[in-house]
Amino acid sequence: MAKVFITGANGLLGTNLCEDLLMAGYNVKGLVRNKQKYVGEPHQRLDLIEGKLFMDFTAVLEDVDYVIHVAAMTDQSIPDYLEYWRINFNATSQLFHAAIKCGVKRFIFVSTANTLGFGSEINPGSEQRKISQLFAASLYARSKWEAEQYLLEHKDRIDTIIVNPTFMIGAYDSKPSSGKIILMCWRKKIVLYPSGGKNFVHVKDVSKGIVRSITEGKNGEKYLLANENLSYKVFFKKVNQLTGQRPLMLKIPNFVLSMLGLVGDTLRRFEIKSNLSSVNMRAVRIDNYFSNKKSIRELGLDYRPVDKAIIDAVEYFKKNSHNMR
């Protein structure tokens, strides 16, 4: 059976991906910083390798058929673009060339939906839309977009697939990462929500889409892995209903978000880390919506309801609250 190498194997997506690849019969090598912190189940066909993204991967990749690059700098608080570029572009290009040198058959890059143009509920964003002016100003999205362009410029040297997940929810979110949005409204008496919305997807569907792209994806193509377009208000209500809660829900006025963004911009000018910025505060005021039609058509995906993703995430948090870090 073919062998797959995954970076970021102990994250939300990486852990689910290891599980699904093993279930599909692949042999898996997973890059982790610390084997002891891997939250997935051990398996005889799973080889965890301790290391960092700037190590020499040629020895690791010499018997690998496919590379799936999941690891990234996603922290929204960093004020310096070079930190994003170093991980999301430079480390990606080095791994990419190591894969070419070792004769890897296909390189799959996990990017973000925000490198594509978003749309409305009636006219959602797609793989054909160019990055929006808003997210071109996001240091994270910009670094991922530049990596995409570089990889696609060299797609003649190795089969290259770009997958663009939207906001992932599900189990194995041990940090937590995107699951923080659930913790913002779960077990709270008052829930504050912004005026915008985004596309939510079960992490298992993203994982399944990546597994399918190994055999079904086309060289040089991008695939949005997306599902339900929901306002933040509707999403928080879903969490409340599914967990049997009835908190007071209050909308955050747009002018307050704008002011917070300006405060964050000021902090960043002094190189102070902050999740606040004008870009981030504007992002939560828009309908950041996308379509999954291409992934359904070309990868044969069948998406499960976001309700299921919320339930799986909440159950994981309940069972592993003592391990959350």
Automatic annotation (TrEMBL):
<feature type="domain" description="NAD-dependent epimerase/dehydratase">
    <location>
        <begin position="4"/>
        <end position="224"/>
    </location>
</feature>
<dbReference type="InterPro" id="IPR001509">
    <property type="entry name" value="Epimerase_deHydtase"/>
</dbReference>
<dbReference type="Pfam" id="PF01370">
    <property type="entry name" value="Epimerase"/>
</dbReference>
<dbReference type="InterPro" id="IPR051783">
    <property type="entry name" value="NAD(P)-dependent_oxidoreduct"/>
</dbReference>
<dbReference type="InterPro" id="IPR036291">
    <property type="entry name" value="NAD(P)-bd_dom_sf"/>
</dbReference>
<protein>
    <submittedName>
        <fullName>NAD-dependent epimerase/dehydratase family protein</fullName>
    </submittedName>
</protein>
